[in-house]
Amino acid sequence: TDGRFTGKTVIVTGAGSGIGRATASRIAREGGRVIALDISEDRLKEFAAEHDGLDITVVRADVTADEDLAKVLDAAGEKIDALANVAGIMDNMTPVHEVTDEIWNRVFAVNVTGPMKLSRAVLPRMLAAGRGSIVNVASEAGLRGSAAGAAYTSSKHAIVGLTKNSAFMYAETGVRVNAVAPGAVMTNIEARFDSELGQDRVSTAMAVTPTPASADQLAASITFLLSDDGVNLNGVILPSDGGWSAA
Ligand code: NAD
C-alpha cells in the first residue's frame, strides 16, 4: 500500500470527536500510524473500536497537562513525522467586559498553550530528521472579530501567530507549519451564549454562514496540508469554510 501517510507516525489531538476524529481516521485509512489523543477516554475507545485493524494507539491525555504530553511522546517514539493540533474548546461568547478569568485561562490553555507545548516537544525530533509537518486548527474567529467571544477569538488569533512565526523560523529546515481555519462544522463542540450582547452581535455574523461542513470535509483540508501534498505550503492559514470568509 502507498497511502499518503504510509510509513509515517502522526500525532492527532482531539481525536475522540468531530474534526480530530475524522482527521485521525483518514490518516489511519491512508496508511499512517496514528497516536490519537483526547481528554475523553470513552470517545477514544469508541474511535479505536470503529477502526479495528488499523495502526492506532490511543492515549488519554489533556493537552494542558505536561505529564500527559510526556505519555503521548513516549507512545509516539523517536520518529514523529507529523502533528495535527485539533483539540479545542469554545468560549461562552462573552465580550471582554464580561469575560471571566476562568474562561479566558482555560480557552488559552487548551487552544494555544497545549498546541505550543506539543509543537515544542515534537520539533527537536523533526529538526533532527530534517522533515516534518505540523497543522494547527484555527477558526474563522482567527481571521476576524465577529465569530465568537473575546477569549476564543483571541486564542485563535494567537494560534495563527504561532503558525506564522513557526513557519518563518523553520522555513529552511524541512519542517512546514500551516493552519486550517474552519467555518461552521457539525461536531460536538459546545457553544454557550452567556452574554446578551455577545448573542446579539455574533448572530449577525452567523447569519451569512454557508451550510455547516462535515468533519470529513475538514479532515480533507487538514490532511492536504499535513501530507506531502502540501509540499510547497508553509505558513498558510487555509480557510475551509465554503466561502464564509469571502463574505
Ligand atoms: P469537538 O468538541 O467535537 O471535538 C474536540 C475534541 O477535543 C473532543 O473530543 C474533546 O474531548 C477534545 N478535547 C477538549 N479539550 C481537550 C484537552 N484539554 N485535551 C485533549 N483533548 C481535548 O469539536 P470540533 O468542532 O471537532 O473542534 C475541533 C477544533 O476545530 C477546535 O480547535 C475548534 O476550535 C475548531 N473549530 C471548530 C468549528 C466548528 O464549527 N465545529 C469551527 C471553527 C473551529
TrEMBL record:
Oxidoreductase as a keyword of this entry, yes or no, is yes
Q: Where does the record place a coiled coil? A: none
Q: In its keyword annotation, does this UniProt entry include Cell membrane?
A: no
UniProt keyword annotations, A-Z: Oxidoreductase
Name the protein family: Belongs to the short-chain dehydrogenases/reductases (SDR) family.
Q: What is this protein called?
A: SDR family NAD(P)-dependent oxidoreductase
Which portion of the complete protein is shown here?
A: 106 to 352 of 352
